[in-house]
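Re-run requested by the PI after the first attempt was lost when the workstation crashed. Everything re-entered from the original request form. Ligand of interest: histidyl-adenosine monophosphate.
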Amino acid sequence: MPEQYKALQGFKDILPDEQPYWRLIEKTATEVASLYGFQRIETPILEDTTVFRRTSGEGTDVVEKEMYSFNDRADKEGRFQNISLRPEGTAGVVRAYLEHGMFKLPQPVKLYYMSLPMFRREKPQAGRYREHHQFGCEALGEGDPAIDAEIIGMLYQIYTRLGLSNIRVNLNSIGDSNCRPQYIELLKEYYRPLLDTCCDDCNVRYDKNPLRLLDCKNPQDQAKIANAPRITDNLCEACQEHFDTVQRFLRFYDVPFQIDKLIVRGLDYYTRTVFEFTSEIDNVALNGGGRYDGMAEIFGGSHTPGIGFGVGIERVINELKRQGIEPEPEPAPRAFVVYFVKEPAYKDAATEITAQLRKAGLKAASSYGDRSRKAQMKQANNSGADFAIIIGEDEMANGTVSVKHMKAGSTETESKQVEIKREVLLEYILNA
Ligand code: HAM
């Protein structure tokens, strides 16, 4: 197939084979989110670019290098609006919360989004796509550390229910507008004499986004990171108390967390609690999240604390596969209808019975074209159906069908074949 007709680099088709994994995650996450009082929201895939730029932050990779942004067609006055494909879910949800006056509802407002596509023009590599999908939760309008613990506990419960083990829960606090500026000064002071020996990216981060200095993966800078001052040693009293309480409450949810003082997160909007769950196999982040108490104010709203997370669904599927967790396969048909004579009356009867079963809510199939009796029986077998419903010459003459129990079994009923009147077929299958 010519290259231009293939899916774009970093984009992929989600084929039927993969769907059982998606269904498993969607069902499990929806059930658990509802236990915690979250309600579904969907926001548009396109937003004004500033929605993302102002919240995720100018100096971040997502905004600087990875957004799919373009000018929309000009309006009547010839003005363009620059719009972007959503790189992450939080900004759109906070925008919707403000736009629809959800601050007037009882707080917190707890929202979740399911399998929403996100677009980041990253360098394609294992586990990194240019289109990925997130399940995310956002709780808006409440700063109580109980919500932080609740949200992390909920996420842990989702992974446990999925059957995943060996998931590391990494937690940190990155302070707030009260204590973080002083910490950043301290960090810059520490880095200033070291800049000559730092990588180019770190030199840029030093000016644009000093907190991200701690996120550098370059081997030459690891020793500097190891000795750098830690935000957790420089929290103000209120942030410290908040962080301590989150940890105390987390124990009630039986979450085996560890403090990782180096988590800073790749988006600028975070305050106080930040967390990532990683796979013990290779440290890949399955989800990321945290507080963003200042985001609503960026949009001109009043102070509205918020906390949430985004789960990378492709990454969780990958982890499920690695841990050998298999979702329920697509159910096999209850019945497969076959006819043994290539005449219209037989095909009509098969079609009528198939339709009758489907209308009654049973999964049913029959073969297309005019296949031989042997080929149809083979199809019935391969379909995994519980019953083959056979219309042969005798059955046609008698107004009956033969029902063959396909699942080989030891009991008499399981291996038998019976001839019954057409009128009682549905009842027979429903009660079998
Ligand atoms: P994030 O850490 O940028 O946070 O993304 C969340 C998760 O999405 C990551 O942990 C990862 O599993 C997955 N992910 C991110 N980029 C890719 C990619 N290129 N390919 C595959 N998976 C990817 C956020 O997006 C925040 N909005 C999360 C949040 C919600 N914070 C508060 N509320």
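Saved to the shared folder this time. The domain at 335-427 is CATH 3.40.50.800 (Rossmann fold).
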